[in-house]
Amino acid sequence: MATVPRPGAHVCGIDAAMDVIGGKWKVLILWALGERPHCRFGELRRLVPGITEKVLAAHLRELEADGIVHREAHQEVPPRVEYALTEAGRHLNAALAPLGVWGRDHVLNR
Amino acid sequence: MATVPRPGAHVCGIDAAMDVIGGKWKVLILWALGERPHCRFGELRRLVPGITEKVLAAHLRELEADGIVHREAHQEVPPRVEYALTEAGRHLNAALAPLGVWGRDHVLNR
DNA sequence: CTGGATCCAAAAAGATACTG
DNA sequence: CAGTATCTTTTTGGATCCAG
């Protein structure tokens, strides 16, 4: 195998995971969906203050493509779309917990 | 309190940690330093294939500022500088482990 | 209400050359 | 050896307007 096998390849599980949660707001979206499952788009926008519609939509599409969130569009007017964590998304949230503890202990409360 | 208290503030430990490990190569640097403590600059560059000197130096300075790595310059010719994880850095690596497992299980081997 | 489309600014990273 | 200095390129996110 080459030192850099192919562009975009991951050398270990950690940087593979980092690609999935690398967006500026993604962990906040995951956290929000963990706290409140089956969130609507506008609800998420309120739960993640400061994010724009465009970026929220983009991140949700990426998370969906990565199998982290499930998107369900109900055929109604006005439109209603609900987002929820998949099984993989819940596992990811659990794997993120120790990192949250570390951040609180070593970065926050200074 | 405002919805976004002040620019750059963190709302939870996870995104605080994400700021620390957010660089493209940082987790690989941490992993290398975990495997091989007391690494020299050129050694690290070889252990993280593809990274440029500029980016490696910049990331090391940021990690040092965040208290993750310790830099020790020996006054010799030719120059010798050694990098090592701090206690916080070792704890961070440990907190990253579950994320690595998740990445292997859900992103790699497809 | 849920976004898509467009344009723009800022940040991050890469290439290359050079120095104590 | 261990970086710094520049310059360019790429990526990311923000602002705004518009549509089904």
Automatic annotation (TrEMBL), chains A, B:
Molecular function in Gene Ontology: DNA binding
Domain of life assignment: Bacteria
HTH hxlR-type domain sequence ranges: 12-110
UniProt entry keywords in alphabetical sequence: DNA-binding, Transcription, Transcription regulation
Keyword Transcription (UniProt): yes
Statement: the UniProt record of this protein carries the keyword Plastid: no
Descriptive protein name: Transcriptional regulator
Lineage: Bacteria, Bacillati, Actinomycetota, Actinomycetes, Kitasatosporales
